[in-house]
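Entry for the shared binder. Reason: the reviewer on the internal report wants the predicted structure included alongside the sequence.
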Amino acid sequence: MITGMQKKLEKIYLGGGERKLKKMLDDNRLPARDRVKLLLDTDRPSIELGAFTGYGMYAEHGGCPAGGVIVYMGYIKGRLCMVVANDPTVKAGAWFPITGKKNLRAQEICMENRIPIVYLVDSAGVFLPMQDEIFPDKEHFGRMFRNNAKMSSMGIPQISAIMGSCVAGGAYLPIMSDEALIVEGSGSIFLAGPYLVKAAIGEDVDKETLGGAVTTTEISGITDYNVKDDRTCIETIRGLIDKFGEFDKTGFSRKKPAMPLKDPKEILHIIPDNPAKPYNTVEILERLVDNSELIYYKENYGRTIICAYARIDGWAVGIVANNREVIKTKKGEMQFGGVIYSDSADKSARFIMNCNQKKIPLVFLHDVTGFMVGTRSEHGGIIKDGAKMVNAVSNSTVPKFTVIMGNSYGAGNYAMCGKAYDPRLIVAWPTAKLAVMGGAQAAKVLLQIEVSSMKAKGETITPERELEYYEEIKKKYDVQTTPYYAASRLWVDAIIHPLDTRTWISMGIEAANNAPIEKFNPGVMQV
């Protein structure tokens, strides 16, 4: 699975193709990924968000690798920053609907964590054939400029570099940033380009005169720095960020980092390829946390969820992880691994509240098939206990980070802090599965509905047609449950190698340490 993921990424990294990348270099312009690489410190880690954005989408338009925009969180002169770079090799950097969603996610992370953002602008604007899906709604193109203004009021630094085209509404992004640079000869910015100006008012004008580097720095004054080429532009940005002051820190506990005592590489052999197969989740946790040390909360109660305190790269964390072992309780009840029962929901809710009380960031590790069903669970109040856990997750104010290791189905996804519950970062391993339920279960349910409907009409269905219908539904569901389907739509921020999990969590907490947290108030608990 890791090899398959890496092969897909290699193709995505080519953007619009090798020919277009070569043309940029021939024109003395750096490709988007090279720009980002030069901007970030090489001696510090960085993480890419949304590499699989748009994967398998927009085939009728030639595809949209990485959503046409490169997004990284990394260090610039030692300062943790977000970098957003349009890829002009993908439809001239035009904005598809998913491009807008990815940009807004980058801004959301910056606003939640109060970290600076750098925009490397090189875009032809909205992809016109799909303008109705990106222009007018609340979470569309215009929301980005609203966020520019909100971030400015929050004191979050924003720097923009106009390294290519910047037209129409997109021109507001760099000019609503704190400072704007423009690359001479290749950068241009205007509300209406030469062709539109000619059509609208009959004026003949070239793009340099209309909105090139000299015009915008010496006549209109809308940009602040005229730089001679891409490399100079990037060095200037690094110099500007080097002068930034620091925000007050929230004060999350951090000690000297330590590697796990147990080999993290063994994770790849512990988690099975078959998502139905049980395994010992503790073995994975011991290969993720510092010194392989965990303090278990209510260790022998509600054992289908593991709650534990630990450190990851020195940061104190509270871990909530689905246990995939089959459990026998003290009462003699057998509990299925990966299922949330009343006792495990109750324990988790209390643990989440404790972490909020102590200002400890939360890490959720998913391999959950959902809540327990059936008469016994319903009579025992599973909905009430599940609601208690969902309440605690929803109202939690300490930073939350979610890692989907395996299954993430139905209400289990919600209770374990799925995307709808505002994790600061949410990632998936290549072994992940996301859906309202598994493909086999969904196919069986829908098949039962279809058969009942036919019987009500006095019709019959042959066993052969039943099997055929079942396989059709299952095949569709199996495609939609893959991590690639989820990542292409930004239901997760990235698909990552399991061995990169510590880096993602550590950088996430470091980012979160820049922003204050609100007082925790769980509201009315369903006790």
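Summary line for the report: The chain has a mean pLDDT of 93.
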